[in-house]
Design a protein that fits this description.
Helix 3 packs antiparallel against helix 4. The chain has four helices and two strands; from the N terminus they run H-E-H-E-H-H. Strand 1, helix 2 and strand 2 form a beta-alpha-beta unit. The radius of gyration is 17 Å and the shape is elongated. The protein is mainly alpha-helical. The longest helix is centred in the middle third of the chain and has 12 residues. The termini are close together. Helix content is 34%, strand content 4%. A two-stranded parallel sheet has the order 1-2.
Length: 104
């Protein structure tokens, strides 16, 4: 099964303009896996993701005219379960295992 984010990441490594001094890619890959954005950031080569939780919360608060603590928690990435960091895949082949790629 092809893994578009992994293949794109690998394909960017030979280009100096996409590489940092440490040898990993600066390419931004944004996944649109709306049900579980936290897992996408942890388990795939995507380094950003679309998140509907905040939008849904604001729409609900506006339509019902209220504000609660869960709104503030949506703004806190750590509280919402997003990873603080993760391993990267370096140009020397060390880092994330391509078999762990679950997105496309």
């Amino acid at each position: 099964m092809p893994h578009a984010t992994f293949d794109t990441y690998q394909g960017s490594l030979p280009f100096v303009r996409f590489q940092t001094a440490e040898g990993y890619s600066r390419l931004i890959q944004c996944a649109e896996h709306l049900p579980d954005p936290q897992d996408i950031l942890q388990a795939t080569y995507s380094n950003s993701t679309w998140k509907n939780g905040l939008l849904n919360k604001i729409e609900d608060m506006a339509s019902h005219r209220y504000v609660d603590d869960r709104f503030v928690h949506q703004l806190d990435a750590r509280f919402s379960g997003y990873p603080d960091s993760r391993e990267t895949f370096y140009s020397d082949g060390l880092g994330l295992d391509p078999k762990s790629e679950t997105g496309s």
